[in-house]
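User: Just a sanity check before I run the rest of the batch. Below are the structure tokens for the first item. I only need the designed sequence back.
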């Protein structure tokens, strides 16, 4: 089942253009350090030849049990924010994807982040005996059966009806409050479940965190997340229309349905389970970075992280694609076994998306095991993301694809938490 495409190693996905266009207003005058992949770095150098990579690391990227070992090259650069829109345009035009960078507050934190991803990739992962046992069938099977496409469809519909979910707009704030209210309604009547909004000092959109307190090992966290924000390539303003139905209303909707069936079951997990809707992913993984950094600072233990970003556009021939780069090979193997145990009719394959392609990178770069099951292979994901056409209609007005990810998320939460 493990496979890779020959051109994959040159890819460094995501994050983008727009994000950067917005930086002119939001980060003016602030030192701006980014870490980025080699292909994006070369495009930047073509435009700004004086730019130098102050740190350059070769990161071995896992390609699965039987694959050859490949390397990505990741750089740290000081950029002038005015260059960034042109860089984003070049990435879109020449590399047919979004930027693939992480914003850092300082050179020190940028360097630490890239060293950490390299060190982690070099460490053979200890697949601790008994660590990834699958033995919760009695609990998981009924929850998987309870997942309803129609409820996922409703959530995608309501989130994509918000004018945009950009991290600096009033609508982006509305999106955060809408998700917090929906999750709080699901938690009603449960004293062991709480919802909070994580404040980010530099922008108004708050991340949302729902916590199901663990009964036996409450200090250990199982994290399931997706991003709430949306964006348009080419620039955003307060009232731009950016529906983000697939990117990433679908991931939030899959998580919300997983949460619903989990809470409806009345199950009390041994470890603490947290659902997270991150702010500001599209502008350099900023919301998830702040949360993961906070967990490091507080010494919190994270048993595992599952990222759902784009779950409802079925562009590939397989059902679920596990991305093998900047993720945990051992945990990915567990996720693949969860799929074959609980979703035996589904097909699972692998691919790679490059440096910093979604919020899982915020966790894996800090040493926490993360996995990223995704809607399609790299070449066949939704072509509508970051446009006004990222609508439910353009994902076929269905949520059957996103439902597969909700089921996988439930299995992940219960098996890892117990
Ligand atoms: C994204 C796009 C393609 C692939 I393959 C993986 C991830 C990222 C998309 N969800 C996004 O906008 N993140 O910023
Ligand atoms: Zn996304």
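Assistant: Here's the designed sequence for the first item:
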């Amino acid at each position: 089942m493990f496979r890779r495409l020959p051109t994959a190693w040159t890819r460094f996905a995501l994050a983008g253009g727009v994000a950067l266009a917005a930086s002119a207003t939001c980060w003016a005058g602030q030192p701006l350090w980014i870490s980025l992949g080699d292909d994006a770095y070369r495009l930047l150098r073509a435009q700004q030849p004086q730019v130098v990579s102050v740190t350059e690391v070769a990161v071995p990227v896992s390609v699965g049990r039987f694959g050859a070992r490949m390397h990505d090259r990741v750089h740290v650069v000081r950029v002038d924010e005015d260059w960034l829109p042109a860089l984003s345009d070049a990435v879109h035009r020449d590399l047919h994807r979004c930027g693939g960078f992480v914003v850092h507050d300082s050179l020190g934190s940028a360097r630490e982040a890239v060293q950490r991803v390299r060190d982690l990739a070099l460490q053979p992962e200890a697949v601790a005996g008994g660590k990834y046992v699958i033995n919760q069938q009695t609990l998981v099977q009924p929850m998987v059966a309870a997942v309803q496409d129609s409820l996922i469809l409703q959530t995608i519909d309501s989130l994509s009806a918000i004018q945009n979910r950009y991290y600096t707009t009033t609508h982006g704030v509305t999106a955060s409050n809408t998700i917090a209210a929906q999750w709080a309604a699901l938690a009603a009547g449960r004293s062991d479940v709480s919802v909070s909004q994580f404040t980010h000092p530099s922008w108004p959109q708050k991340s949302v965190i729902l916590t199901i307190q663990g009964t036996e090992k409450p200090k250990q966290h199982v994290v399931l997340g997706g991003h709430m924000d949306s964006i348009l390539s080419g620039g955003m303003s307060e009232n731009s229309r950016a529906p983000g139905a697939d990117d990433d209303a679908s991931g939030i909707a899959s998580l919300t349905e997983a949460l619903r069936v989990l809470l409806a079951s009345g199950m009390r997990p041994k470890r603490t389970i947290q659902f997270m809707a991150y702010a500001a992913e599209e502008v350099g993984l900023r919301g998830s970075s702040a949360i993961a950094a906070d967990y490091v600072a507080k010494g919190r233990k994270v048993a595992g992280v599952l990222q759902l970003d784009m779950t409802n556009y079925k562009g590939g021939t397989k059902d679920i694609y596990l991305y093998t780069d900047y993720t945990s090979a051992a945990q990915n193997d567990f996720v693949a076994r969860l799929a074959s145990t609980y979703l035996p009719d589904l097909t699972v394959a692998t691919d790679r998306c490059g440096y910093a392609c979604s919020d899982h990178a915020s966790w894996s770069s800090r040493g926490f095991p993360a996995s990223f099951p995704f809607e399609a292979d790299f070449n066949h994901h939704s072509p509508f993301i970051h446009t006004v056409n990222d609508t439910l209609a353009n994902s076929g007005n269905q949520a059957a694809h996103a439902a597969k990810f909700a089921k996988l998320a439930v299995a992940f939460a219960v098996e890892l938490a117990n």
